[in-house]
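Form 7-S
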Amino acid sequence: MGACGTAPETSAQVSDAKAVVQADGKFNDTDVMYLQMMVAHHEQGLEMVRLAEKTAKRDDVKILARAVDATQSDEVTLMKSWLTQWRKPTTVDHAPSAHADHGGLPATGPEEIEALRKAKGAAFETAFLNLFVAHQHNAVEMTQVEKTGGVNAETKAFADRVHDSRTDQIKQMLTMMNA
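Output:
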């Protein structure tokens, strides 16, 4: 039965499936900064999608939010594991001037998140989609820092995946907004 995929999962099977890709090889300050900034960016995105999972009425918005939650939760774990492997902090300096030369930190502030919390019904979906399109666009822009200045192959490949997946999400959300 196990070969047919009907056997119950064991903890060994689950942990094998979640093996973390290692970011071996050389890395530079750009790789570290990019991952630190993306951890902060992802955590903010997770806050927004978790609001959408609870508040949205539209099924398509809820499905998108759940998918983003799953993906970005795994990505945060991955990025933090690389930073830990490199013996670097997993957090970023939140001073606005600290990152001005490379695109800055996420533009979504506490005011926008609070306004999203207060929105209800169709107004919530509109606010969420608008805010999250901008948020994901910021992620796409941030990948350019890594692609042009990073040296670690796994981090650069990760930036490519983020670029492509967030671009696709933006297209999907724009379609949802126009539906």
